Amino acid sequence: MPWPPPGIGRRAGKKQACGRDISSGVRNFSRWPSLCICGGGGFCLADLTPFFEPASVAVVGASRERNKIGSEILHNLVATGFTGTLVPVHPSAETIQGLKAYPRVADIPGTVDLAVIVVPSAQVPAAVDDCLAKPVPAICIISAGFGECSEEGRAIEREMVRKIRSAGSRLIGPNCMGLLNTDPRVALNATFSPVYPPAGGVAMSTQSGALGLAILDYTRQLNIGISSFVSVGNKADVSGNDLLQYWEHDPRTAVILLYLESFGNPSKFSHIARRISRTKPIVALKSGRSTAGARAAASHTGALASSDDFVDALFHQAGVIRTDTVTELFDVATLLSRQPVPQGRRVAILTNAGGPGILAADACLAHGLVAAELSVDTKAGLRAFLPAAAAVNNPVDMLASAPPEHYRRAMRLMLADPQVDSVIAIFIPPLITSADDVATAIAESAAQGPAKPVAGVFMRSHAAPESLAAVPCYAFPEPAAIALSRVASYGEWKRRPQGEVVSFTDIQGGIARAVIDTALRRGGGWLTAVEANALVTAAGIATPRSHLAASVDEAVEAAVKLGMPVAVKAVGAALLHKTEHRALRLNLDTKAAVRAAAAELTRSLGDRMDGLLVQRMVRGGAEMMIGAINDATFGHVVVCGSGGVLVDLLADSACRLHPVTDQDAGEMVDALKGVRLLRGFRGAEPADEAAFRDAILRISALVGLCPEIQELDLNPVKVLPGGVSAIDVRVRVEAKP
């Protein structure tokens, strides 16, 4: 087995670029040379290669009894023809399944690259110590009973990880089902799954071992070729981020699938996935939508935001294709692994039955695809050989009598049409036409035509013909349309500019920090209205001239100084929705009106009110909102949406994870229903949309400068014909732990 792999060279010297010393004796694995691709970023390919390309594997906990997990893993390694040395570890057995056994890993002569530990949880720490004494660079713990069970289990798990990392080794698991590599040079099946999938270009990581068993069986049914598969279990050490970086440089992997239940480091995931998605598609199924409950509504932003929104934002920014079901995950994987990515959303539909063609067209429209307008030449070409009763508009219905040759000729014409980006070919078997011959015609046309994806739909109870292996085939039109839509969105992401994080030279960082530090010295919490306005003003976002008054008389004096007309607002920590609490009076243009409004607010709100904010009225413009929230998992998230009362009525918002690029800001605004208000809805004067996008970027810059910001609300933001004005600002801060 050649090492390093072709195209990756060894690095000279005693230290890897990441700084890990491999000559100190702490980590002395002669088979895994000083090979680093991280450029100092902290990830070494050699760290995971012993898992996927071991020359020797020890199964700790192998038993002479079949139907035990350890024995099944050993059996699988033998049955799939593992090309290296295989050693069972058992305290008393001399041989297991015809292989010489040893009581301890340390007793095994020569090196051991991978140890698979399958013993009761109480015996696992001793087994780990035994492996590290060898030393073994790669350890996979199948056993459960650790961090997923109790605090005591978490403590034991943490201590094992500490020892493993100190020794320079890596760990997959615990509480997992193992890993496999279908490369015939290795033929590694270190899982207890009875299924060994066909070899191919799809790599997969799963957090659920039970689901992993079903997934491997499903891949074999669908004939999806797997390059490698890992069940990460508790992710105590090796995580999905590590695997992504390994697969990025694996020449056998073309598509990466992830089943995720949680994120360890979303920021790192985003950074890695953005890079990898440019060359290899990543398809993810993230569970937990139903448990991503709403936050306590301490702010408009907090009420709008949910963890699942943040997952969507993370995947969108990183170019990850998100799917909703396991079936959809593999529908997309099948398409990506067998067909090119479409260059657009225009789909042509070919069918031998009208009903399925209409269903396909409806499904395409429902999922953001477009029915392609076939060119005059394409229609003329179709009319030249199809029966007079056939329909040559899209969908093209060739009638039930269509022979395989009609499929072949029609497919070639449609694929050659410059107004077509992809084709869905539907076949319902009539009595007179061979399904195998139609499948061959579709497959040959797809292979010989231009690089456009073809999705087959064979509406019958049994699997598609083998001759259609190079074309993904679905039982009904809807899954084909959904898969094409997901992949088309991915193609758009790859083609759009990556965007830049804008650096603002006019943000007054010193003032912003002074506001935050003053609030932190008194214990944090909600900023006063004056502090909040000063903070966003320092970020370069205008606010109306205002004054915080402590009494009715002071409110009147402030109104005179500011100039009429004014607004008077009661401010207080509990007065989030000012219209709901009747805490707002607008368009006050006399001293008497100000006095009456201030007195009424003071009388009705009493102790709930901290003061009266008098503001110069800002008239006109479209009401929008901008916010930010610091999520415990995802970090700072920036939100924008329709503002004023519409923020609660419509829940019309979009979010992106910090830092927000100029491309992100444009997409956020474009995604809003309320964007029409900015663009001159029903004859209104267009608002300064560019200034609104700029304000979003300034809020992103502000939370980067002041990470202590936990919640921030600008609602409403008046987007005027020229510029913006943040009418109401709320900010909560806490000291960073």
Concise structural overview:
With 737 residues, the chain is of the alpha/beta class. It is 35% helix and 20% strand. The strands form 6 sheets. It has a 7-stranded mixed beta sheet with strand order 9-8-11-10-12-13-14, sandwiched between helices.
How big a fraction of the residues is strand? 15-25%
Q: What's the story with the biggest beta sheet?
A: 7 strands, mixed
End-to-end distance: 48 Å
**Arrangement of strands in the largest sheet:** 9-8-11-10-12-13-14
Helix count, per DSSP?
23
The pLDDT mean sits at 89
- The counted number of beta strands is 31
Q: Please, could you describe this protein's structure?
A:
This protein is an alpha/beta fold. Helices cover 35% and strands 20% of the residues. The chain is built from 23 helices and 31 strands. The strands form six sheets. Strands 9-8-11-10-12-13-14 form a seven-stranded mixed sheet, with helices on both faces. Strands 21, 26, 27, 28, 29, 30 and 31 form a seven-stranded antiparallel sheet that branches. Helix 7 (266-277) runs parallel beside helix 9 (307-318). The protein is flat, with a radius of gyration of 31 Å. The two termini are 48 Å apart.
Which helices and strands, and how do they pair?
Layout: H1 45-52, E1 56-60, H2 69-79, E2 85-89, E3 95-96, E4 99-100, E5 114-117, H3 124-133, E6 138-141, H4 151-166, E7 170-172, E8 178-181, E9 188-191, E10 199-206, H5 209-222, E11 226-231, H6 240-248, E12 255-260, H7 266-277, E13 282-286, H8 300-304, H9 307-318, E14 321-323, H10 326-338, E15 346-351, H11 354-366, E16 370-371, H12 376-383, E17 396-397, H13 404-416, E18 422-427, H14 435-448, E19 454-458, E20 473-474, H15 477-495, H16 509-521, E21 525-526, H17 529-538, E22 546-549, H18 552-562, E23 566-571, E24 584-588, H19 591-605, E25 611-616, E26 622-631, E27 635-642, H20 646-649, E28 653-657, H21 662-670, H22 675-678, H23 689-705, E29 709-719, E30 724-726, E31 729-733
Parallel strand pairs: 1-2, 1-5, 5-6, 6-7, 10-11, 10-12, 12-13, 13-14, 15-16, 15-17, 15-18, 18-19, 19-20
Antiparallel strand pairs: 3-4, 8-9, 8-11, 21-31, 22-25, 23-24, 23-25, 26-27, 26-29, 27-28, 29-30, 29-31
Helix pairs in contact: 3-4, 6-7, 7-9, 10-15, 11-15, 13-14, 16-17, 18-19, 21-23
